[in-house]
């Protein structure tokens, strides 16, 4: 056992001494490996973090799932609302906004009221451009841009909303204050938004017509959630908003494909750099190799010595690359998504192993040239 340990120590000392004597060339190889490892570990970190980052980014484009009653004559109850929420994985729900719609008149003109959980609607739709502010108090409304133009209303103006009576004939008038004007470029500009509490005082049925959800999930995961809801409650019909989910998957697939292609190219370039450096080292050490062979060293032992040096470079280059790669990935993520990436501990051993394998493979062709070195010719100076 002691003899084996002594042999291993001698082998390590020999490799370290060899690396130290050729600092300039080995530093070039080490930098090539470190740069390659930096880009690889950084891109892999981004690759695995892209779905999370893209999911958060796409949530700013609105809800990606709707739930409506299967029977048009029925509505969604609070109990069903809780039931659907329980089927969404923990931490995936970004926003939930149930809506109650009813007709109303303002200045004898027909408009549609939309009562909702205003906090949930805000979380679902961060892209809405609000001139003013979201309603915070009772009897405050958020009106669409088209409504604002038609009625010449702006923030702070008072309006009288005329709705049918909850019980019996006739109608009732209710005063509201405009807290803001919403611009979206869509159907929201034709609606008047208020809190559920306010609209509940105007309508008889306090159940919901539709519920919008913003869920941080890819299309496959979202499809599974939709299926689970359908199986759990047949009276509900969940639907994916395909314009959002499909766009997310298309962009995600293209970005991940790009990262994969760049990683392959970087690995190839790193292999060429290491192979070129090792070829120069072998040429430079022809006399040393010839002397080793003359003293009884076998071809396999000479090859193992060179591959050992390559493996050491792979380990140190990989460690340096992992640290720099995380910094690189973090900078990219902050610049693109304004969010930090998560560190992947498993990436440390994986990057080091990849660097060792790439370095050894890149060294095989240069090192194989040592087999052809004839000690007699080399030592004669030929």
Kindly describe this structure.
It is a single chain. The longest helix has 43 residues, at 242-284. A hairpin with a 2-residue loop joins strand 2 (93-106) and strand 3 (109-116). The chain has 382 residues and is α+β, with helices and mostly antiparallel strands. Strands 1, 2, 3, 4, 5, 6, 7, 8, 9 and 10 form a ten-stranded mixed sheet that branches. It contains twelve helices and ten strands.
Write the layout of secondary structure elements.
Elements: H1 2-21, H2 23-58, E1 65-69, H3 78-86, E2 93-106, E3 109-116, H4 118-124, E4 129-132, E5 140-144, H5 145-151, E6 158-164, E7 171-183, E8 191-195, H6 196-200, E9 210-215, H7 219-232, E10 236-240, H8 242-284, H9 286-294, H10 299-337, H11 347-368, H12 375-379
Parallel strand pairs: 3-8, 5-7
Antiparallel strand pairs: 1-9, 1-10, 2-3, 2-9, 4-7, 5-8, 6-7
Count of alpha/pi helices? 12
Strand residue percentage: 15-25%
Mean pLDDT across all residues, rounded? 80
The radius of gyration over CA amounts to 34 Å
The 3D shape can be described as elongated
Total number of beta strands:
10
End-to-end gap: 42 Å
- What profile does the largest beta sheet have? 10 strands, mixed
Integer tally of domains = 2
| Helix percentage | 55-70%
Q: SSE order in H/E notation?
A: HHEHEEHEEHEEEHEHEHHHHH
Low-confidence stretches: 166-170
Structural class, from helix and strand content?
Answer: alpha+beta
Domain ABC3 transporter permease C-terminal: 261-374
Subcellular location: Cell membrane
InterPro entries: ABC3_permease_C (IPR003838), MacB_PCD (IPR025857), Macrolide_Exporter_MacB (IPR050250)
Transmembrane segments: 257-282, 303-329, 341-365
């Amino acid at each position: 056992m002691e003899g084996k340990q002594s042999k291993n120590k001698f082998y390590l000392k020999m490799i370290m001494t060899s690396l130290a004597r050729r600092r300039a060339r080995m530093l070039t190889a080490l930098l090539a490996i470190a740069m390659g490892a930096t880009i690889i570990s950084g891109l892999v970190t981004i690759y695995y973090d892209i779905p999370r980052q893209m999911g958060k980014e796409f949530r700013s484009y609105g809800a990606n799932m709707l739930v409506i009653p299967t029977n048009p004559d029925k509505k969604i109850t609070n109990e069903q609302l809780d039931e659907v929420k329980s089927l969404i994985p923990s931490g995936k729900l970004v926003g939930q906004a149930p809506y109650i719609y009813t007709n109303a008149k303002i200045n004898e003109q027909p408009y549609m009221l939309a009562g909702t959980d205003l906090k949930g609607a805000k979380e679902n739709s961060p892209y809405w451009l609000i001139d003013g502010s979201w309603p915070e108090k009772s009897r405050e409304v958020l009106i669409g841009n088209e409504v604002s133009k038609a009625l010449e209303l702006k923030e702070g103006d008072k309006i009288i909303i005329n709705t049918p009576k909850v019980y019996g004939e006739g109608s009732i008038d209710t005063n509201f204050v405009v807290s803001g004007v919403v611009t979206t470029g869509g159907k929201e500009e034709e609606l008047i938004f208020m809190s559920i509490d306010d609209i509940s005082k105007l309508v008889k049925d306090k159940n919901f017509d539709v519920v919008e959800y913003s869920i941080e999930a890819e299309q496959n995961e979202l499809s599974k959630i939709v299926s689970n809801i359908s199986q759990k409650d047949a009276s509900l019909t969940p639907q994916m908003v395909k314009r959002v989910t499909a766009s997310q998957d298309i962009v995600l697939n293209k970005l991940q494909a790009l990262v994969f292609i760049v990683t392959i190219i970087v690995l190839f370039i790193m292999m060429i750099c290491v192979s070129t450096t090792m070829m120069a080292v072998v040429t430079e050490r022809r006399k040393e190799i010839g002397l080793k062979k003359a003293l009884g060293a076998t071809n396999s032992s000479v090859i193992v010595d060179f591959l050992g040096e390559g493996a050491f470079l792979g380990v140190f280059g990989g460690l340096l690359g992992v640290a720099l790669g995380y910094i690189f990935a973090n900078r990219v993520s902050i610049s693109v998504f304004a969010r930090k990436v998560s560190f992947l501990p498993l990436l440390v051993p994986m990057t080091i192993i990849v660097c060792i394998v790439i370095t050894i493979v890149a060294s095989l062709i240069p090192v194989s040239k040592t087999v052809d070195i004839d000690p007699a010719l080399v030592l004669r100076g030929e």
